[in-house]
Amino acid sequence: MEGHSDNPTAQKLMRAFMQFHRLQAHQRNVAGCTPGEIRMLFFLRHAAGEGNPEMKVSEISKRLNVTSPSVTQLLKGLEANGLVERHIDPADRRAVGITLTKRGELVVVKVSEAFEDSFEGLIEYLGEEDSNRLADLLEKASRYYSEKMAGSSNQTVLNGVE
Questions:
Q1: Taking the CA atoms of the chain, what radius of gyration do you get in angstroms?
Q2: How does residue 115 score in pLDDT terms, banded at 50, 70 and 90?
Q3: 30 assigned to some structural domain
Q4: pTM score, two decimals?
Q5: How many Å separate Cα 88 from the centre of its chain?
Q6: For position 121, which CATH number holds?
Q7: What total of structural domains would you count in the chain?
């Protein structure tokens, strides 16, 4: 395969990342929600904690750097499941405020607990020292990719590809 690395360490890292990607694909639904819907619920809860209990779709879109139609699509599913509510502004009927319902809050709490339990289990499995080392390495890898992305555009990858 052209462009395939002969470096055994690079191959090992790629395999490990691919295994995590496959695991993520199998965990499509948490509490009946997609990962995107879960992120939206957490975002709305966080915004409410910052004093924004009701947010407009345009605000959500801007803060998450996602298109308004994408936000609207996510919210439709969440609303259908009773996890968020829409409130039409009587002064401007085009403006719709979004809030978490009690059920939405409960899902956020349950998912938070499940995440915490999962990481507690991982720490138990790996041990404290390896867990700290893994966290440090993941932070370092994240910095590497953030710096790499900041220094180049996605077009760089496609240069020379027809």
A1: 20
A2: confident
A3: yes
A4: 0.73
A5: 27
A6: 1.10.10.10
A7: 1
Q: Which of 94, 26, 24 is nearest to 58 (CA)?
A: 94
Helices 35-49 + 102-126 axis angle, to 10: 110
Opening angle at CA 138, ends 34 and 22, nearest 5: 40
In the DSSP assignment, the letter for residue 66 is -
Q: Amino acid identity of 159?
A: N
In a domain, 3, yes or no: no
CB-CB contact of 99 with 84 (8 Å): yes
Cα 139 to Cα 74: distance, rounded to the nearest angstrom: 29
> Facing residues of 87 across strands?
97
Decide if 141 is inside a domain: yes
Task: Write out the residue range of the structural domain in which residue 122 sits.
Answer: 16-152
Q: What is the pLDDT of residues 57-82, one digit of tens each?
A: 989 999 999 998 999 999 999 999 99
d(CA 118, CA 49): 25
The residues near 85 (Cβ < 8 Å, ≥ 6 apart) are 79, 98, 99, 100, 101
